[in-house]
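Late entry, written up from scratch paper. The run itself happened at the end of the previous shift, but nothing got recorded in the book at the time, so transcribing now.
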Amino acid sequence: MTTRKIVALLLALLYTAQCQESTDAASAFDLAASSRPLPTDQAVLDLFANPSQSPSESPFLFSNDTGAASSDVIEYGLSPDATSRLSYTGLGTVAFAQEPIPSSGAVSLGCGFGYIGSNFTSALVGVGAEFYQQGFSCGRCVLLQCDDSSCAQPGLQVVAQIVDQCGECFDADLNIGYPLFEKISGRSPAGNPTLSLSWQFVECSPYINDTIKMLVKPRGNAYYQAFNFANSRQVITAVQVNGQLLRHDSDHFWSWNPSSGPINPRGPFDFALLGANRQVLRVRLPQLRSSDLGIQFAMPEIAPAVEEENEAAVEAAIAEAAAAAPQPEEDPEPVAAASSATDGEEGAAVIDNEP
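Output as recorded:
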């Protein structure tokens, strides 16, 4: 018999012996298990016999520390007290910086703002594509309500500003800033970074201080410039420079591709901004650079009925602007309400009120 055959035979005998040992052990375990009665838990039997004695504690309780006292246990999910919810419902997930951002700290976010007002550096929100509305929702205000069981004060409401598009958000879900999460929930997001929320759009004017800021997009040239406008009381639905209509892009910049030839860097540049309230602001700038425009839309009346009417008008104006936004290949047509330049000194602003 060859060496190879001998080795194969020995391996086969070894495998058979191991299998027999496993079978014997399993048989012994089965016999031992069947030779004694199953353990009985009288508390469990009593619970099945008397369902009314079910535990008072909810089974859906979570804690970061398995050894935590019952007072440290946090219950998550929709609060049973959340009976009066706002227009849209979804989950809010913590995002953005852990600390309040500086006023210039939102440039890299979806709306590209070069300036954030002091009321919103700790109150940032990102919305899904449906509510982002091609960037026309940038700068709008939302009222958030905490409807989660984990909230220290369920029903607490906080106003925040849309500064970003949330690519992962489904339907009415939101991304909310870390400080905003802590403020509305009264807890850290470390254990669970989501909240059940409801929210709705609200008038932004009471929370906007100071005037509109313009950010010029870097790396422009004689054939392309783009501008972002922040801190506006109204959603800006159209922009003109020297009578030419600009194209609104999804990054919330307004692009200027003059069809009449290269841009004259000597200026002046006459800007006209059309608000959702149909006001037109005009300002003349000596050169194209990021600056405070020194203009602002008028403060509307904020009675509850008027606010609902204003929000409905804003929604209609945004839908109209989004539908009418020219594509890159189209030749822009001027807006009659903003077609003339300001006949004033450089830096002066004029407000027109359309009927």
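The chain is about 20% helix and 25% strand.
(Scratch paper discarded after transcription.)
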